[in-house]
Amino acid sequence: MAHLRKNLIAVAQLTSTHDLDENFKTCVQMVERAKDKRCAMIFFPECFDFVGKDAQQTIDLSMDLNCHYLQKFKTLASDNKMYMSLGGFHQLDPLRKEKPFNNHLIISDKGEIVGQYHKLHLFDLDIPGKVKLMESHFNSAGKKLVDPIDTPVGKIGLNICYDVRFPELGILHRKNGAQILAYPSAFTVETGMAHWETLMRARAIENQCYVISSGQVGNHNPKRSSYGHSLVVDVLICPLRQVKKLIELTDEETADLFIVAKKVQAKMEEKYGATSSTVSCQDGVDAGQSVLHVHIHIIPRTKGDLGPDPDAIYNEIMKHDKDGRTVRTHQQMTKEAMEFRNLF
After folding, report:
1. pLDDT band at residue 216, thresholds of 50, 70 and 90?
2. Domains plus CATH for the chain?
3. Active-site residue set
């Protein structure tokens, strides 16, 4: 096993849909970026293969371990000489007697399955008026914990998402020699806002080991959204920190943020033929912040784009995610993101 400090990891955050081919294309792009950084291993979240529109589609789209789709990931791993954590593969029951399993797979840099774990704790949640997700309607629970898996970045204890709420699993993994606890996830927005970071930090604190949590993020379909906020927590409990307000940044970080904002503004004005821009930071909940980390809105402007009052933009910012408008598809946002990336 290689020394822990000598190998980089990549943590991929996805917005999977029911379109398996598009999901794979996104994963390929993530692997290419990880390879450019010379990462030894990449961690994909739960449901990396797909997120079904409903329980029946989830069952219908499930696959077995020798399927062509999984073979593409094995080839991707071997071609790029990179280990992969595939955080939750929808695996058909080999005997076809049960619903599919939620299987956390480890693929070696030779393209071989070297570890797998069927999720033990299924997520059944029904909060009236907010969220309903009954995993037991389309998945079967696993039967056993598995030993930690040797990888170039350390021995990994395999878990999936809801397992993080059961500290005994982490303790058992640690006793069995795990140096890293992996929790690939598709946390709901509601539970993520309440508990995500607290739970991941808690597992790192009580076990004094690393925690890697790759997450699904954004809108998968009209019925399902995920929280994101992927985390890597070290043994000193120093995650890539979440900064909620501008005043929490250091002077150096503030300078970096606005230098980047200027560069983005220039490219956006050029792309859209704009003459001006609104650069806005809603710094705190009472200022309209709905995503609880520092971020800047950069909106290209032209004369009269919202009528005679240029300040009408602030009303638009406040209501853009609350006025019932149709949410753009994952494919539309991916296409737009790639167009923007090519500008730099």
Report:
1. very high
2. 4-233 (3.60.110.10), 246-341 (3.30.428.10)
3. 46, 119, 161, 295
